[in-house]
Amino acid sequence: MEVRIESGWKEVLAPTFQQEYFQDLVDFVKDEYSKGLVFPPGKEIFNAFDFCPLDQVKVVILGQDPYHGPGQAHGLSFSVKEGQSFPPSLLNIFKEIKADLGKDMPPHGDLSRWAQQGVFLLNATLTVRAHQAGSHQKRGWEEFTDSVIQAISDKKEHVVFLLWGAYAQKKSSLIDSSKHMILKAPHPSPLSAHRGFFGCRHFSKANTYLESQGLEPINW
Fold first, then answer.
1. Which of 39, 56, 68, 169 to pair with 211, CA 20 to 30 A apart?
2. What are the catalytic residues?
3. CA angle (189 as vertex; 184, 192 as ends), nearest 5
4. In the chain, what are the helix, strand and coil shares in percent, each to the nearest 5?
């Protein structure tokens, strides 16, 4: 089966798309979309890749699962479409940006403007059943997205990985810390943000690192 994805990513991930587990995953996902409501819309599953080609990746922000409410998920971790209210974790991300950089809260939560600057917004699982958090976990997506993280680590240099929460932090074993920057903090969810996400200053730290490598900082 042909996966519709940005050409640079397609080339790097071609061996992964041929693997048996990925073929099984595709069959599972197609079946799920045919039987009920699944998010994000099918054409938006690979938005993170399409909005941020591999050769442009400067920062990686790893989420776990897409939002499972109507109209929210659109293929970018933590992001929601314009017109949707801010989910709690995203609101806390914007609060930290305000505290860190002094930037006011944006009018909407669509983070595609970050993606277009080189922020790769990857969820570990790329699809989910409506109103059923975690419903597509352990079906193959995690294996696929681990191979994506590994590919970024192997093929790029000087990428900042923002790993928020225990789940994301486990992925640090896939990243070569001798040529990339790894920043860790608690998850921005209301349950844990007060344990160190607030005050982590990851946004200014990421920009300072990028500038030290001669790269354009992100306009958060």
1. 169
2. 65
3. 65
4. 45, 10, 45
In this predicted structure, what is the pLDDT of residue 1? 52
Check whether 2 has a pLDDT greater than 70: no
Confidence at residue 3, expressed as pLDDT on a 0 to 100 scale:
80
Question: Could you give the CA distance from residue 124 to residue 141 in angstroms, rounded to a whole number?
Answer: 7
pTM metric for this prediction = 0.97
For the stretch 131-189, pLDDT in tens is 999 999 999 999 999 999 999 999 999 999 999 999 999 999 999 999 999 999 999 99
What tokens were used for 110? 């669509």
Helix/strand/coil for 183: strand
Peptide bond into 66 cis (omega under 30): no
What is the Cα Rg of the chain in Å? 17
Q: Cα–Cα distances in Å, from 34 out to 77, 129, 193?
A: 24, 12, 37
Residue 150's nearest CA partner among 171, 165, 168 is 171
